[in-house]
Amino acid sequence: MYQVNSAYACIMYVFIADIHIRPEIKSDRKKFINWINNIRSKEKKIYILGDLFEYWYTGIEEELSDVIETLADPDVFVLPGNRDFLITHYRNKNINIIYKEESILDVYGQKVLIAHGHTLTEGDTGFKMLHMLGWPVLRLFDRILPLKIKLSCAKTLVNSSALVRPPSADIPKDIALKKGVDKVICGHLHKGFLGDKLIVLPSFLDEMSWLEWDEAGPRFVKNTSSAI
């Protein structure tokens, strides 16, 4: 049992990753909107740890007005993933976007690093080269290309992602020690792992599951309702 002090009383931290909303699929948007509306409350802080969207580019927010409206909550925070990293170009004072790929939280007295996970992997040389050399170019293109070309580029990158990231890519279990924190929480791998120092979130897209952390400690929760 985690010791509770007054700073954390009645607070639940919720972590979710890999929703992969396809902007053109209404049911994707509805599923996420229903989930967040059902779970949100003033006692909860909700952290979306990357790949909320299957892809993102500047201008696409007009197609996602229903999701954007849902995110406009002071207790909801959005961290970019490898699919939607260009969301850091989006400026909306009502949306809490975490502009760093890795950020530190104080969760029940523990120093917790949150990230999507693409910056933490081993055995992922192809993606790391794309991240280092390709992403700066894509950030530039996002500012200057017309919408139709950006859409075509986004879909091409999504379709080729399996070739860039090998299935052997993994996150080392001692990553918290390497980062100098008590615990790391991330997604990206699409497989859940609940360890003492590392928590990898299950894919919400695949499993409808997320992490909740309150005075009883962290635990995975799975949706079983047909309403979502």
Summarize, please:
This protein is of the alpha/beta class. It contains 6 helices and 11 strands.
Describe the structure.
This protein is an alpha/beta fold. The chain has a single domain (about 10-220), classed as Metallo-dependent phosphatases (Purple Acid Phosphatase, chain A, domain 2), CATH 3.60.21.10. About 30% of the residues lie in helices and about 20% in strands. The protein contains 6 helices and 11 strands. The strands form 2 sheets. It has a 6-stranded mixed sheet with strand order 4-3-2-1-10-11. A 5-stranded mixed sheet has the order 5-6-7-9-8. A hairpin with a 2-residue loop joins strand 10 and strand 11 (about 215-220). The protein starts with 11 loop residues before the first strand and ends in a 6-residue tail after the last strand.
